Each structure stands twice: as C-alpha cells, then as structure tokens.
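Case study 2.
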Amino acid sequence: MPRTRIEGLLASFPKLMVPGQQHTTIETETIRYVYQPIGEEMYAVLITSRQNNIVQDMDTLHLIARAVADICDVNDQQGVILRGFDILTAFEEIISQGSRDKIDLAKLRTIMEMESHEEKIQDIIDRNKEREAKQELKRKAKMFEEQRRLATKHGLAEPSLGGIGSESGGSILGGGRMGGSYEPLLSREPETIRSFASASPAALSSSSFASNARGMKLGRKPKGADAMGAMRNEIDLSQNLAEQLNISEPVLGYSSSHSVAAAAPIAAAVAMPTMALADMKAVHVQIEEHITAIVNRDGGLEQMEVKGDLSLIVTDETCSVVQVGVATNDSHNAQIKTHPKIDKKKFLSDSLIALKDASGSFPLSLPIGVLKWRIVSSNEDDIPLTINCWPSPNGSGSVDVNIEYELNDTRLELDNVVVSIPIPHGAQPSVSDVDGAYDVNRTRGTLDWEIPTIDASNKNGSLDFSIPGNDAGAFFPVVVSFVCKKPYYDIAVTSVTTPDGQEVDFSQLVLLVPDQYAVI
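Prediction:
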C-alpha cells in the first residue's frame, strides 16, 4: 500500500467521526476504522478491511492501547511523541505483514526489554579482567622499582631480567599459565592501555624506543648502563600509566543484578542482597539461582525451570588451591554438571569440589563457575510460591478481584515480594482487605501488592479489591518478583580446606531470583 494511500486514510478519520456517538467503529465502502480513546484528544486507530473479523480487530486494538499505555503516559502528548520509536516497535511486534501475531502483553514486554543475562555476566567478567590488568601493571611497576633499588644498592651493572614474568604454579582456569621469560610491559596489557601509550608522546621519551643498531658511536656507554637505562625507562613508563589510570590499592568485587521478572517490568525497586568488599574473605562462595515459573489462570503449571551455579572468587594467592565441601539434599531430581577442570569422581564420592590437576590453582579475582544444576518440573506442588487470582464481575459495572498467595516450600524465605496485577487504564481500585501494602503504578497501569517477607510464619496472605470494568481477563498476567537468600536446590557449603586438610575462612552469598514468574 503506498504511503499516500495511508496518509489519505488517516486524514479522513477525523472527518468521519460523529461527536456524541458511543460507537467505536466507522465503516466506508471498503475500509473499517476501529478506534478507542487512550488519552486526552488521542485515539488508537486500527484500519482494516470490512471483511475482517471485527471481534479479532477489537482484541488487537485493546492490546495496542494497553501497549501504548505501558510504554508512556498517554495523558502527555509530548511524552508520546518522544517515545514514538518504542511505540512503533511495539506495533511491529503486534502486527506483522498485515496480520496479528500470536502475542500478549507479557511477551511484548519481554521483547521490548531485550535483556540478556549472558551479556551481563560477560560485562562482569570484562570488568574483573580490567581490574586484574591494572593490578598486574602496578605489581610490575613495584617489582621493577625494587630490582633497580637492589641493583643500585649492591652496585650491580646488569641485573637479571629473566624471571620477571614468571609465576609459580600458574592458573589452569580462565587463561592458562604465565610464561617464564621476560616480555616488554606493553605487550601483555589490554588494548586500551596500548592505545593510551601510543597516544601519549609526553610519557614516552625517545630513549624508550631507541634503535638497537650497533653502529659506531662516540663515547658509547657500557653495556650495563644501557640495561639499567632501558629498565629505568620501563619503570617510568609503568608509573606514568599507573598514575593516568588512577590505579589505587587492589579492589576486588563481584556484583550481579538481574531482572526480577522478564515477563513484565516491576515498578517497585527490589533491594538485591550484596556483600561489602570488607566482608569478603580470601575465598568467596556465591550460589546463584534463577527460576522461571509460568502458571495458567486455572492453576495448571505451564513451565517451570530452575538454573543455578556455584562460583568461587579467590583473592589471595595463598588460597588459590582449595577444596570446597558441599552437602546436598536432591529431592527434585536435578541435573548436575561440574566444570571440566573439576574432579567429578571426587565430587560424586566425597561431595568435594577440587581440581583434577593437583599442581594447578584457581585464578585470582575472577568468578569461576565450578558447579551447575538445572531442575525442570511439571508438578504443580514444586512451585515455591503459588498465586491464585479470582476476578469476578459483580453485575454493577465493577469487578471484584481476590488474590491469594501460599508458600509451598516453607524452607525458603522470600523478601521484597511484589505481586503486580494489571488494571484498566485510568481506573481507581478500591482495596477492602490487604496483607501487607499496595501501590497503584499509573505509569505501568498495575496494582503492586507488596509483602516484605513470606516465610513459614507468614505463608498465606490475600488481597481484595474492586475496580470499575467488566473484563475478567484484564487482570492477567499477574507477575511476581522477590529475592531469596536460600537456594531452591537444597545445597550448602560445609567447608573450604587446603589439600592437606587445613580449614580456610570463607564468605558466602546465596541468591534466588525469578527470571519470569507469572500467572497468565
């Protein structure tokens, strides 16, 4: 269809509207306009042929109107214009090549978010590698300075440079061992540092890159003096780079933030548990799980999956060779995998996470996943938290909604729980009874039910409210977010020891969050 045709149809729409009528459709000889007011002097208009199914067209129009209200404030025309690209993207997801795609508001929100858990993990790894590179740079600068000081003190003309780049033992995870021969400092640094060095003429004196040609020179200095001068140039270069990069004392950390509900963004801020750097020990254990649970409005389980991993972060070289003892109570038939460098036989027989290679070690300051597990279930009893939503039209132009929660796994303690219920745009709910607190989010068009903690002592609760309308399906999907400091898979770290059995003090962080937890 040419652009002029579309512009002509849209220009004709305001002229065809009759003020005061309650109809939401206008028909011409070949075209049907289906429209709905979505704000002040704004309409959502769907242009179709007269042969189309008007019921399906109305359903598509309702989804479009809800999508626009979900993206921006429909009462602000300037805000709608500013978010025009996002609105157009949503329209393309709903209607493809003139036909309605099989999509609902929850799937549309997921597509619009475009979040990637793998990308976040990669960003964390990259940041830690950058920190480690800065620490290595500072360590080399100190080492060069110490060798120069010792050489000056003992009157050595040519200190040995052969062992500067060597490390004892090495790391068999995350990059291999470091070589034993000396390498120029810049050859082993990240690309950003190299580009900085090449772009900083002041930092690089011409003597640093002097020619090695051995032609005739008058007053040539002794060989030892050349070696000391070259080493001094690299030391000065290292110190200059360290200052420009603002390198301070080593700071090690690992944080992870995840979307608490991929099906629909939650307006309430969820406080994710973190651990201060001062509280992290030389060996830090992190257990992280992500749960996906989709339940239909009749209570049937559509999908449930739990993915978890156990990671180690070692920040002290003296603790780089350790064994981690774990205790598990597998009541969910979990699929378990160990890292290829981990001794799987020892894990299965002794519940110990240890390296296969006794001469190897864990890398420093990098989170290394040593154990993974996956749980898939079709049993409704395996859902940790059950949500039941009962919307019922009362015959007087309103809908009475009752929502209940029940904690099935009383071993867990859920914090910062938010149950988000969609509500008709512009409607004001009247809450008659609530366990906890609630908040009406006008931007997203949801009623957020907030429960600080759900545990064995508070395993049941309900929310009752009434709201104008007559569509019982408008209150789905119900999306749940929470944070739990206990894993769904019953696993616990019992000890961290050296190969000879000495106990090692360790810190631990456990986190269970939902990737997608909804009643559809």
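The chain has a mean pLDDT of 77.
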